Structure formats: C-alpha cells, structure tokens
Amino acid sequence: MDTPTGSPTSAASTTSTTSPTPAEPLGLVRPVKAPRSARSRHTAVAALFLLPALVLLGALVVYPIGYSVQRSLFDQAGDSFAGLDNYVALFTDDAIRTALRNNLIWVVLAPTVATALGLVFAVLTERVRWGTAFKLVVFMPMAISMLAAGIIFRLVYEQDPDRGVANAVWVGVHDTFAEASVFPRARPLPVHPLKAAPGGGYETKSPVRAGEVARLPLVGVAPAQMPEGARPARTPAAGVKDTIEGVAWLDFTRGGGGRPNTVDPKELGLKGLRIEAVKDGHVVARATAAADGGFTLDAAAEGAVLRLPASNFREQYNGVSWLGPNLVTPAIIGSYVWMWAGFAMVLIAAGLAGLPRDVLEAARVDGANEWQVFRRITVPLLAPVLGVVLVTLMINVLKVFDLVFIIAPGSAQDDANVLALQLYRSSFGTDADLGVGSAIAVVLLLLVLPVMAVNIRRMRRENRR
Fold it and tell me: What is the pLDDT of residue 154?
C-alpha cells in the first residue's frame, strides 16, 4: 500500500537516514592560524631583538670559552700543539695540587658554615623584637666589596695583639687563665753575681749565707715596661742571722751615671720577680720581690743557691699565627662566612616567612618541643631554600680569588692557594704559561657545570609544581 508523501512515517525515515551536523560548543572560538608570511615576520622581528644579546653573549661568553679550550691544548708559547700535557700538569704540579685541595676544603666548609649560620640567624631572629635591625647588621657586610673585606681581615688577623683584633681577644682570654711572664727579656751582665741555670733561668754564682744581703741585678727591661707600681729599689739592712734578705732590681739608670752591682737612687725594683732557694737539687724556700725589689727567705735557704726560674723570662704570649701555613685557609674562610652568612640568612628568612604556620602550631599542640619542631618540620620544609643557598655559595666559592689574594701574606700564599688564584699566577706570573692557565680555566668551568646543572634541574622541578 502506498504511503502518502507528507505522512509521519516518511518524515521519520528521512530523519533517520540523514546524519545531523554536530553543533559547536557555546562560547568556544576556534583559533585562527596566522598566515605563514605573518609567522615568518614575527620570527624575524624576535630574532632582530635578540640579535644584540646574542652578539654580546657570543663575544663575552662563548668566544672566551672556546678560545680557552683551544689555548689549553697548546704549549707555553702557543705555537706547538701540546695535547693534554697542560691538563696532566694540573695533577703533577705541587702548587696546583695544593690549589685543588684547598678548593675542596672551600667547597665543603664555606657553603655549609654560611648556610648553617644563616639558618640559625633566620630562625632565632624570627621572634626577637629587634630582629630586623639584627638582620640588617648581619647583612651589611654584603655591601662591602671583596677588596675592602680582604683589607679589613688582613688587619684583623695581624699577629701583633696591639693591631690585630683576633689576637687581641685571644691573648686576653689566654692571659685570663694563664699567668704571663713578668720580665721576658731580662738578663744579667757578666759582672753580675748571676749565671745561666741548667734548667733555664739564672742562678747565683755562689750560695747565700744568713745575715748577708743577696743582690740580684738584671738588665734588659725598658723602664717604660716595668710592672705597674714598681718603686725605687732599696737595699735591706744586713745582720739578721735567721733569715736571708735580698734585693732584685733593674741595674740601669736612665740617662747614665749608674754603677753596676750597686743600687742607685733612680733604679727600680723588679716587682713580682720569683725567687727560689735550691739546695741539693730541691727547692727549699720561695719568695717574690716586692715593689722596691726586696725579698726575704727563711733559715732553710742557708747555704742554698738562689735561682730565678725560667718562668720569669718566658716570652709573652702573642696569640695565634692566623695567617701562618696551618691556619691561613680556615682564617680566610672565616672572612668569607662573615660576608655571606647575611646573604644566606635573608634567603632563608624569606622561605621561613612562607612556611604554613598551622603545621608548626599543630606540632607544638601535639607536644613537640622547639628543637623537634625545628629539626623535623622547619628544616624539611626549608629544604628547597637551603638547596638554593648551598648551590649558589658552592658556585661562588669555586671562583673565590680576591680574599685569598689580599689576606694571605706572600709567605703563606702558596699554602692558601686556590684554583682561581693559581689561574692568575699561571697566566700572568713571573713564569707565565697561558697553556696551563687556560687548562685551569677549563677545569674550573667543568667543576661549575655539574653544580649549575643540579640547580637548573631543581628550578625546573619547582616550576612544574
């Protein structure tokens, strides 16, 4: 039976056989691709703007690196190809091996100590009322150039306690617990009744007798360096039979005119001089000279030899040789830490300000003390910031030159040598060898590259988060 054209069955059949066009999602606009000519023009414009930067990068970075690599393969004159001989010299030359060893010490100690101090300063000053002022003071050395810092610490580490701050403090602490010598350069003259003692110091040439006056004259002490409170010497009266009286004095008259072995009116007593009476190798009596040089020994000193112990003449303690061969590298590292601990503190303090406080407070509520909060929560959360500080300082110390060159004296510069200093000395020293200098530069670059790669990888990982 025929079906009418306009019936519902026909309409349904038509609908089922024709697939509808899918509708576009509302609010979605398809991007219109720029013509190829427009994209090429944009690329050319970008390249034009980048060209000055690329030229500078090539002239100041790429070309010097390439030339250094090339020059490191040639001999001292630069005429003959030397291959890897210059690199072999880095591990056979004593000075360069010392520089490599010191660089390793720098990389291990300096960033670690500076980062640790920065962490301590940042955490402790977070709750201090004057924390901002303290951070300003700690960060202030960063405003000083390496040259100025080197000059400052060259004076700080001076051996003379009257000039070097470090030794002035050290000597002050030492003298607090150890008695200093009274007369370090005092000595007798040949005409004096004293001679050198076998164990050090001086002793009388003959035994003393009761009722006599023992005279102990010395020279070699500047009047201005006499002990405070010393008075004009006085010869005691003789005749007391059960004791031995004596006088120890500086046998020197300012302006001349004095007589040896005689107490003149202007001569001062050796206040504080220690005297021992020795009989048969044993000390039987002791005394200390008074302000006028007088002293008294009891009857046990009869027939004994009077000895002035070596402790009277020991050289005064002058502190530590900070710039000597043993301590010069740690001393210079100390100056570096003084400069860069503030840098580490500022970065760590910024990271500390971004920590979630609810985590810290939750740990305290759960019963954790401050040390546990610091060790188990604060430090792990600050690990990315600590990594940034450590890597930055490691790159920086591999290139350290100024402090070592300025602080280390000429006699200890070989002991404080680092690669950057050796690069300067090999390239521009008395026996300049640009081949070896270029090899050192390439080695420095190779040492820095892994640290930079770690830093770049960490930054990319942080950006993906």
Answer: 92
